[in-house]
């Protein structure tokens, strides 16, 4: 971002921003009063959400402030090819809705590591995936969103970095702590509306300013900085395939790499990542979950028009600033020697948007940041509470789990605030290149573990574990090897001495790592004993109609916590009454003392009001929630009859008219994606 683009806001912009915050606060407070008094209500919105807010929340959780900065900057740098990541996501949303969600809903899980525990048994895979999910959430997702959001607020608006970001973090935490997933999804819905409307207005103004789509195509290859005209290299010159989504042999964004390499990461992100999947699990049934995926899929077609094309327009309108290639000139423009593409969106907002509308667009950026933070906060607290806390407190009560979930959100808030100095020091450095690379090196083994697990019963815990470990070591080895070298700036690429294996495109490496992890998983599984049928009934896509209930796979004692599906003394109970999950019990003495905190006969003193406020924040304002009864996970509360009804409901969904209509709409959306791929492909350039 750039200091030179900072500007004082007009009073109408400030008014719009204030109205936005009042709207979000009011809507967040209203939604915080819904579905908040139980574990299922707090972490999964009571499994009662309609498909429209589910789809909007999927989109808002994905589109953060980093998308507005990064996609627009990439469009300004190299054209529309980067939109291939967004369009290909539509395919993987369909995979989520039609392959993974039916299994997750039938298993009645809260978290993805929880499903892995059911599918493979043991504890070691679940612990690994839980730690990995929390690490990626804290050190990549929160970091990237705060990086782009904080720099935008500081440089584009001249707001104080610490005060503005801390205020937004605390506001996001208020929704997450007070209302749980219900508040997060409903505020995501409002913020999606704000983002789409404001970005659409900016797109229209940008297109009018430049003269339309054809003018973008005509002018973009000549949008170079004045200093670039006098150099002898191709640095700062747009890619010759700038108007083509499909670039088979492009060095940076090869189409096959986007389709398959990004597809591997997308399996992990869209189908196995807690932040995304948790939204579909909050839907009232399978049909609404699938319809939510369809809504998100339609919205994912918009970034090409709302972000990428405006980025190209910004380069046409401001070539000397956005198109700078000389490191010294770039540093004068945006205090970065690596280029100034990331200032494209702020420049458009501050130089093209009229008063009041500019305030709406700034609210769009704030909405993108907040929607991502609330999603990460809620999902991370869910994983910590269900997959870590319950390992140590197997008989934890309902109120305890809700309090712990909220406390962990506050811990995340503290970590986020501590990240701000690191983010500020990292401007212009390669820290965030490292962070993004970590995801591409760690995602393929996880994707293989989940995909093979839902497709093939023969995959067992030994195979899945060693597939994950082998992929982890290969990914870390490649990561360390690649970043042990210093990448040369564009002007000195001829001096690049890195081995060709290190320069191997990361998208192709993702495919290779996925294949290696899959082979290891399959081979080890075939060389070891299969998991008996009774332990995995209904936990794969081809076994959804199985009326039998899966029995919990025993865990061997010892430090490795392996699955032990072959012991003689079988467990006589299923997941519904497993000791791995809490069963209703009387509170201990310590818990009774904790509950006494909320009991008082004094209805006038300040202590009463403090206790009442604390109880409301923790979702414990109802007396019947303080009776010491333990709540298990939702699936533990159902008896055999209700469990069979849930299985039947999934089977009925498959033949319902709404399900068929969802499938027809999915086919139409995929056909629309194919049309977009074909329409925005320059075949003459591609074949030359």
UniProtKB/TrEMBL annotation:
GO molecular function annotations of the record: D-glucose:sodium symporter activity
Membrane spanning stretches: 12-30, 51-69, 89-107, 127-153, 159-186, 193-212, 253-270, 291-313, 356-378, 399-422, 434-456, 463-481, 506-527, 662-680
Principal location: membrane
PROSITE patterns noted in UniProt: NA_SOLUT_SYMP_3
Gene Ontology CC annotation, any one: plasma membrane
Localization, UniProt: Membrane
UniProt keywords, alphabetically: Membrane, Transmembrane, Transmembrane helix
Coiled-coil segments on the chain, per record: none
Family designation: Belongs to the sodium:solute symporter (SSF) (TC 2.A.21) family.
This protein's name: Sodium/glucose cotransporter
């Amino acid at each position: 971002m750039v200091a030179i683009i900072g500007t004082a806001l007009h009073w109408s912009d400030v008014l719009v921003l204030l109205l936005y915050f009042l709207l979000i606060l009011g809507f967040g407070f209203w939604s915080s009063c819904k579905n908040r008094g139980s574990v299922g209500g707090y972490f999964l919105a009571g499994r009662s959400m309609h498909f429209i807010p589910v789809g909007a929340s999927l989109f808002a959780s994905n589109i953060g402030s980093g998308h507005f900065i990064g996609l627009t900057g990439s469009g300004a740098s190299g054209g529309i090819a980067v939109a291939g990541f967004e369009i290909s996501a539509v395919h993987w949303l369909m995979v989520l809705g039609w392959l993974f969600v039916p299994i997750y809903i039938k298993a009645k899980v809260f978290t993805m590591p929880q499903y892995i525990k059911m599918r493979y048994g043991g504890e070691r895979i679940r612990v690994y995936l839980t730690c990995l999910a929390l690490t990626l959430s804290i050190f990549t997702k929160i970091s990237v969103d705060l990086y782009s959001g904080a720099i935008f607020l500081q440089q584009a608006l001249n707001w104080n970095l610490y005060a503005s970001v801390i205020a937004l973090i605390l506001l996001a935490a208020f929704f997450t702590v007070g209302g749980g997933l219900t508040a997060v999804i409903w505020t995501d819905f409002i913020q999606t509306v704000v983002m789409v409307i404001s970005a659409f207005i900016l797109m229209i103004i940008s297109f009018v300013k430049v003269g339309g789509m054809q003018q973008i195509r005509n002018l973009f290859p000549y949008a170079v900085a004045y200093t670039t005209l006098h150099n002898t290299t191709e640095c700062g010159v747009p890619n010759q395939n700038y108007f083509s989504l499909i670039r088979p042999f492009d060095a940076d964004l090869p189409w096959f790499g986007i389709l398959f390499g990004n597809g591997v990461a997308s399996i992990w992100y869209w189908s196995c990542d807690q932040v995304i999947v948790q939204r579909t699990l909050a839907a009232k049934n399978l049909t609404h979950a699938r319809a939510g995926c369809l809504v998100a899929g339609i919205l994912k077609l918009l970034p090409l028009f709302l972000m990428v094309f405006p980025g190209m327009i910004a380069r046409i309108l401001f070539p000397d600033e956005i198109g700078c290639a000389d490191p010294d000139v770039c540093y004068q423009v945006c205090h970065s020697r690596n280029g100034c593409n990331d200032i494209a969106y702020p420049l458009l907002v501050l130089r093209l948007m009229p008063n009041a509308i500019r305030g709406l667009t700034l609210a769009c950026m704030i909405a993108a940041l907040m929607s991502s933070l609330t999603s990460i906060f809620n999902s991370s607290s869910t994983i910590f509470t269900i997959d870590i806390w319950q390992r140590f407190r197997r008989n934890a009560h309902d109120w305890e789990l809700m309090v712990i979930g909220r406390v962990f959100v506050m811990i995340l808030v503290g970590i986020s605030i501590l990240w701000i100095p690191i983010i500020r020091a990292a401007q212009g450095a390669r820290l965030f290149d490292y962070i993004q690379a970590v995801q591409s090196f760690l995602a393929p083994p996880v994707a293989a573990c989940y995909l093979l697990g839902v497709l093939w019963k023969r995959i067992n815990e030994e195979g899945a574990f060693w597939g994950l470990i082998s992929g982890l070591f290969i990914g870390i080895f490649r990561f360390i090897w690649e970043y042990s070298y210093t990448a040369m700036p564009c002007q000195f690429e001829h001096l690049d001495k890195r081995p060709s294996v290190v320069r191997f495109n990361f998208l192709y490496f993702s495919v290779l790592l996925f294949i290696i992890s899959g082979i290891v998983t399959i081979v080890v599984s075939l060389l070891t004993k299969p998991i008996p049928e009774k332990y995995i009934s209904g936990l794969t896509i081809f076994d959804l109609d199985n009326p039998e209930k899966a029995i919990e796979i025993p865990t061997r004692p010892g430090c490795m916590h392996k699955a032990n599906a072959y012991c003689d003394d079988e467990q006589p109970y299923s997941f519904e009454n497993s000791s791995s999950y809490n069963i209703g019990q009387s509170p201990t003495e310590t818990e009774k003392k904790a509950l006494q905190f909320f009991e008082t006969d004094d209805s006038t003193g300040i202590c009463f009001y403090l206790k009442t406020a604390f109880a409301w924040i923790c979702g414990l304002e109802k007396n019947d929630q303080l009776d010491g009864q333990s709540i298990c996970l939702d699936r533990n509360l159902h008896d055999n009859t209700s469990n069979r009804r849930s299985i039947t409901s999934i089977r009925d969904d498959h033949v319902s008219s709404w399900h068929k209509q969802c499938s027809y709409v999915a086919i139409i959306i995929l056909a629309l994606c194919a049309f977009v791929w074909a329409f925005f492909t320059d075949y003459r350039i591609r074949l030359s």
